[in-house]
Write a structure and sequence with these properties.
By secondary structure, this protein is mainly α. It is built from four helices and no strands. Helices cover about 60% and strands about 0% of the residues.
Length: about 80
């Protein structure tokens, strides 16, 4: 049996700059939409969309401040109720 090492056509990749930009625009338009719906809209696999969502959605400097502020408020609220 002969096995070809390379496929006869180039392998497809969904991780192109164009697809990442399309995902960025889709997330900007509809940030609450699920990965499954984004995948259907963009004609990409759900796995590809999940990867792109991680690439596109990076934390901003203000996100760290908001996270810390939230943690401090929760600690104070729980402290008021005697929870440690």
């Amino acid at each position: 049996m002969i096995v070809k090492k390379n496929p006869p056509c180039p392998t497809k990749t969904a991780r192109t700059a164009e697809n990442v930009e399309r995902m960025r625009q889709a997330l900007t338009r509809s940030p609450q939409r699920s990965a499954r719906r984004h995948a259907r809209e963009l004609n990409l696999s759900r796995e590809s969309v999940c990867i792109k969502m991680c690439i596109v959605e990076q934390l901003k400097p203000t996100d760290y401040e908001q996270r810390e502020d939230f943690a401090i408020r929760i600690q104070m609220l729980l402290g008021d109720y005697g929870v440690q």
